[in-house]
Design goal:
Chain lengths: ~240, ~240
Amino acid sequence: MEPAGAFEPPAETHPVPAEAHHPPDHHPDTRERLLQAAERLFAARGLRGTTVRDVTREAGTNLAAVNYHFGTKDGLALEVFRRRITPINEERLHRLRVAEERAGGGPVPVEELVRGLLEPALLLDEEEDPVLPGLLSRFAHESHPELLEQMRAQLREVLHPYLAAFRRSLPALDPTELRLRIHFLAGAMIHTVSHLGWLDLSGVPGEPPPERRAVLEALVRFCTDGFQAGPSGTLHPTPQREPGA
Amino acid sequence: MEPAGAFEPPAETHPVPAEAHHPPDHHPDTRERLLQAAERLFAARGLRGTTVRDVTREAGTNLAAVNYHFGTKDGLALEVFRRRITPINEERLHRLRVAEERAGGGPVPVEELVRGLLEPALLLDEEEDPVLPGLLSRFAHESHPELLEQMRAQLREVLHPYLAAFRRSLPALDPTELRLRIHFLAGAMIHTVSHLGWLDLSGVPGEPPPERRAVLEALVRFCTDGFQAGPSGTLHPTPQREPGA
DNA sequence: GTCTATAACTTGATAGAC
DNA sequence: GTCTATCAAGTTATAGAC
């Protein structure tokens, strides 16, 4: 009984030289087509809302193809995730490094940090129709535990250095509040971009949707000023509804 | 063939006086228990992630109970939605009216508008363990078309008057950008509150999670200043990556 | 109103021919 | 590597006894 190695044909466990023969992979694309179909469908209908049958139909392949190439449906999802999310996070870290060099030890302007987090996610797949934001949202909101752990691990690697940078740029801000604000930024980005998905703008049938660049700029502006707001601690203690009048 | 009326036993189609006999409803709670179990599970695992079996098991009732009381699983979801989301939106409108009266024709302070949108969603079920934010998120992100339409319709009724109020308070802001900012607020709220769900704070194992009140205040601060930010239109034209160096 | 039993269907995954 | 055929498990919903 050795079905363990049955799937994972392009098992690049060892650092095979990049130009080496792909293992007898005549059709250069069937695995690729699966990935592309999957990311489209996952973004549009969610993980649980997409069946393996949907994916193989959309990819024009056989039902068994997903299991052959990725073992399980979750395996496919994990690969889709890695392929699309990893480059975003690398770009985020790259931009942070560049910004910090440019600042030469001093604090990095808040807007640059905000852009460093937002732009890679929103502009990295500019040529194609943007499936990435939708994917981000789906993964964030309905991942299985394993996938979620992957996400969290990657996110930690990005957020840790960004948190440090923010802290240097906003030294007066309480660390917990800073952390919360990063979540606000993430939420604003993910929600805006997936839900209203560059598509509609909350029911104004006449107007065309704003261009993604405009959405990005608006988001940057909103978040930058949000980050630079004073601390909330002693803010107006909430005008509660009066019981009597 | 009259199975059409089989479900919907408390069919309150007509404006029955509130204290009228519930139709032979000895057990005061089985329907109620279903609703409570459903909203807990929906909030925790999502709509598609929750099966009718889960709900009935959690409620301690029979598998057929859901179909008897609500017709279909979607019918149950719709009722859960109405029960919990409708009061939020009514409270939002109420707060807006109060704020506008208080302002007496003048512009309402932006912070009051922000609070009017956020507080009802985040504080309305303060006594119980807060299931509401999770529900909001689930409904927003994985609703079936019918439910989504319900949501959108309700949301329109809330957003329309709020948009008008914001416009009076921020007359210099482009209407499209204003609309976007409302989406940012919604996203920040929903994401923060569901994903980090008053529960964990992005992987800092030592610290306790911030209290919901603190989260709310931080969110209010962030969004208020975000709303009051200048227009993004002519903002820094984005330092693109230099091709050469 | 509540239950058991089951129908009708969809899902992910696999075995085995080619 | 790709296919067809099929399985086992899980799903919603319903019929009909109580």
